[in-house]
Amino acid sequence: xLHEFLRKRINDVKNTNVLKLMTMLTLIxxxxxxxxxxxGRWVYEKVSSAHNASQAQAATQSAGGPPAPPAVSVIGHVVxxxxxxxxxxxxxxxxxxxxxxxxPRVSGQIExxxxxxxxxxxxxDILFTLDSAQHxxxxxxxxxxxxxxxxxxxxxxxxxxxxxxxxxxxxSATDLDMAESDVKQSFAAIEQAKAALRIAQIxxxxxxxxxxxxxxxxxxxxxxxxxxxxxxGHLASIVQMDPIRVSYALPDRSFMNQIExxxxxxxxxxxxxxxxxxxEYQVPGERDFESxxxxxxxxxxxxxxxxxxxxxxxxxxxxxxxxxxxxRERIAPVVPQEAIITDSRxxxxxxxxxxxxxxxxxxxxxxxxxxxxxxIAGLEPGDKVIVRGIQNVRPGMPVRPNYPQTGSSSKSPAExxxxxxxxxxxxxRE
Length: 430
Fold this sequence. Notes:
Blueprint: H1 2-63, E1 72-78, E2 80-83, E3 88-96, E4 99-102, E5 108-113, E6 120-121, E7 126-130, H2 133-165, H3 173-205, E8 208-210, E9 215-217, E10 227-228, E11 236-239, E12 244-251, H4 252-257, H5 259-263, E13 269-274, E14 280-290, E15 300-307, E16 319-326, E17 331-336, E18 341-343, E19 346-352, E20 358-362, E21 364-369, E22 372-377, E23 384-388, E24 399-402, H6 413-419, E25 426-428
Parallel strand pairs: 1-24
Antiparallel strand pairs: 1-23, 2-17, 2-25, 3-12, 3-16, 4-11, 5-7, 5-10, 6-9, 7-8, 9-11, 12-15, 13-14, 13-16, 14-15, 17-22, 18-19, 19-20, 21-22
């Protein structure tokens, strides 16, 4: 029995090992099949790729050079000339060239007011008349003093002449000296009397108060019947209306840009005015003068212009807009700032050359004008530059430019300037 049991167990073990061995062999065969298939595909792809590359190389060599890279689509711009003498606007204030406060120079009661308040008066017109009776009496008194001084002089001269004609032994030297002194004192008294009479006559003339300048007179601060004196307030005021002055604050940067023109004679700016209602004052302004001190608080220089004002449109104290443009033109090529690139070698742009090929062009730049930049050297009007798509461009690369807006050029400097608040007039292309 034991023998039979052991034989069966041995047969079971043998059958199990055979099954495991068969299973393992089957797995090995399956893995080998799939690995072989993938290896064959990889080898096939490598061989095909190499074959294609060989064919491409052969085609390139037969063409005579490396394949050209595809053209890059970019936005182009045609360089134009513009007048960089830009118009500027400032806030200005109308001021009279002359202002006079009318004050009495003698005391007296006002007898009459001769003007209409707010009217135009001319130099020499009588404005006020003061009571002149007291001053007329003073003139008469001074005339009497002059007559008395003249009589004293006549007496002194005659007495001195008699002493000189008498015998020297009968006249003392003291008497002669006193006689000569009386004559000189009489002459001095006459001059004094004449001066006093002149003062009295001047005071009498001051009883008629006249206009010292031509202009518009304001309110009468004192009327008929009021007693006035030099120590009191003013009686009225007159402001000159024609010509009239306008002042505005010019920034120090603008002054420095035009300093040569300011130091020379003649106009620096062509100036006009925009009134409060938006209308343009039709009379151009002229340079008057500039303040001799720069305002340290605001960094501005006060500039004064002179305007004709025959119709009285400009009233002192009125706020206006002063529109200025440099009297001298400044024509130069301009380029959009978005086209400018800066590296270690300096500023440059990519210019679209013959055959629509990008070329580097180094620049010397001037001032900024809104979204544009002055070109001192490097570009000429008519040159084409790339303004957008620059990041994909390299020197020598073909490009496919597009010129929006007009079909042949990008936005003009004037359009770019207007977008940024500047007025940049385009002169034209060459």
